[in-house]
Amino acid sequence: MTDIFVSNYDKYPIVSAYIDDKLEFVSVVRDSVLNDVYLCRVENILKNINSAFVRYGEDEHGYVALKNILGITVVNRHIDSPNELRQGDEIVLQVEAEPVKLKKAKLSSRLSTSGKFCAVTLGRKGVGASLKLSEDCRNRLISTSKKYYKELVDEYRNTLNGTEFGVIIRTDAAKLSEDEFDNCIKSDIQECLDQLIGILKTAGTRKVFSCLHKNDSADETYHTDKARAFISTRTDDEPRLIRESVVHNLKKDIDKLLMNRVWLKSGAFLVIEQLESFNAIDVNTGKAISGKNDVIFKVNMEAADEIFRQIRLRNLTGMILIDFINMKDKEAVQNLCNHVKELARKETVHTEFVDITGLGIIELTRNKNDKSLKEILQNNNQTVDNMENE
Predict the structure, then answer these.
(1) What pTM value is reported for the model?
(2) Distance between CA 283 and CA 313 in Å, rounded?
(3) What would the pLDDT profile of 52-86 be if each residue is shown by its tens digit?
């Protein structure tokens, strides 16, 4: 049984999804600036760190890497090189990462927008496809899309003043029939390009600090659509949409996500630490029987499944280091690594297996797509350690 709930956690509107009565998806409905596009003013340029500090609101500050500056996004004058950018310039930038604590917002002039079947980014080049698709499927979609890409590069070259653009084919494109694919992909890319061009044209008529494009994060439908998209990767069941002010167990389940300790059915437990520069996850035997390799392997495999559930629900991003229980059997270690790679491939947010160190620590990276659940809720809750075995 699969249910999507629209409810509240304390003062926060929440969209959650339960599969077989287990929380598998949670998203806070809030007004985020992530992916918003602003007409910014350059405040300072620090070439020694290859960055420019900008204002995108009266009291909102951020930074942008100079290498990412596209001439087409500078509004008040023409520049041919990022090195020509100077203090006082007005430039169209998109928020890549929200400000967190003392960290300023990260912005980019490589504007990006998404349609149903593709995503288009200025300043990139070529055609790619979602890594969630199989290699054969990716190659097929990329090969078929390239002919339309070349046509559109020529068609939009003058309008974009020679600025290149890249296209990523999304997973939904794999569901299109051969007859549908041609028209759907080409029109989707065109719509994305037209939207980006419209944003740049609008910038020329707006005051500095204006928001030129707003994301849908405050729209409940945006979050229920995300929940449906996630569920479709896990089950063929059609979810029920239920609106309730209070959902049984939701508060308890989210409270657990703000705790450091997570108990597993085997009696082992995880310790999850969200640090400034990375996330650390430690697997401990706890009450599980230790000493036998087959038991340790089973605990590690169980831990891997739960770790990815926790990463998803807590929305841990950036560098993630996982210290599994040590195993002497090299074949068991390789099987665990293969399992982790497969779990990473299934994630809706791009997650990459980087390496396993000589000390047996697995390194992952996960794309920054929003603040973590803890960062969003931290003003309302204090993170505590859970010593109780649920």
Answers:
(1) 0.84
(2) 18
(3) 999 998 889 999 999 889 999 999 999 999 999 99
